[in-house]
Amino acid sequence: MSTLLNSESILGGTMASVVTPSSYLTLHYRLSTKENAEIISTFDENPATLQLGTGQFASALEQELVGLAEGAHHVVELPPEQAYGLRNPALVQHVSRKTLQENSASTENYKVGDLVEFSAPAGGQFAGVLLSIDADAGLFDFNHPLAGQTLIFEARIIGIL
After folding, report:
1. pLDDT tens, residue by residue, 83-106
2. How far apart are CA 134 and CA 13, in angstroms?
3. Most exposed of 46, 61, 83, 100 (fewest Cβ within 10 Å)?
């Protein structure tokens, strides 16, 4: 991909805005699995408006938008390594009942499939999906839910500010 020197390129003799790493833009987008299971789409709804580089959109998806001109329609297949990463077996871990109680309301009744948030030692948050639970501990998957999946990303740039 060529390096963009400014936010405009010549298309058919006219100057057209193009997406930069910090663009504020309006777009329609769709994210689906390679097996065509739709994860999210704005094509049948109102378009999304966001600013790149602020964490509103996944980094890999933002990179696919940079350099596109206003009006562009772009479809790309992202392997797991370029999307949400490969599944990491080390991120499937047991969490003691004591830790679960420390991170939840006393009335919490966990069920397999629940997404549970935990406090990180440095003050942040992380979450895992409960795979199983017994009297001593719960088994959680802390991988991103889309880790290990090839994704199809489709975008149509409506406007660039």
Report:
1. 999 999 999 999 998 888 887 665
2. 67
3. 46
- Spatial CA neighbour of 91 closest among 137, 150, 149, 147: 147
Q: For CA atoms 107, 113, 114, 116, give the dihedral sign.
A: positive
Residue 65: per-residue pLDDT: 96
> With contact defined as beta carbons under 8 Å apart, do 71 and 120 qualify?
no
CA distance 115 to 129: 4
What is the pairing mode between strands 151-160 and 137-141?
Answer: unpaired
pLDDT tens, position by position, 23-33: 999 999 999 99
Q: Which two tokens stand for residue 60?
A: 């890999």
Written as one letter, the residue type at 122 is A
Spell out the domains of the chain, with CATH numbers in brackets.
8-84+148-160 (3.10.50.40), 89-141 (2.40.10.330)
Residue type, 141: D
Asked whether the predicted pLDDT for residue 159 surpasses 80, the reply is yes
